[in-house]
Amino acid sequence: MPLLSFYQSLFPEAGCDEAGRGCLAGPVVAAAVILPQGYSHNLMNDSKQLSEKNRFKLRIEIESDALAFAVAFVDNVEIDKINIVKASVKAMHIALDKLPVKPEFIIIDGNYFLPYKKIPYSCQVKGDTKFLSIAAASILAKTYRDEYMVNLHHKFPYYLWEKNKGYPTLEHRKAIEKYGLTSLHRKSFCSHIDQLTLQF
Description:
Nucleotidyltransferase, domain 5
């Protein structure tokens, strides 16, 4: 079933989502997207339900079609300092700050958000499977983060970030046990893994 264009149609509406909350390494990345009134797209969906090829293809369309979009990164050091939930919301706020068109309503994937500049908002559980702007934000957040982790793979090849993008796969966890942590790892996430020696 096609996703809904908007939660409400009275005010310019931004959809927000993030990628990388469950990773052992790298940043959390959030995106905010404002789509045109009446926008429709039969193929757009939650980024996790799309192939990598289709995500990057849709990213081009989103960036071409959107009235405004922005992407923001919060790094692993800040994640360790304030926790991943607050870091995810902070990334969304930064993305909203960067929008060249200011929204008057915000819809967010998930069940937690902190007020942003007194703008009304609605949290939507599984919102990336319900609303196009949230799905679009999930695609941008995911593709920008994946690109970032693939580039880091060349600096830290033992951890296979080119494949796992920093998520806690068996190969990633074994690499941490063998080689220790890099400066890009989230120490608060990796505290349960043995032999944690910092590698630069």
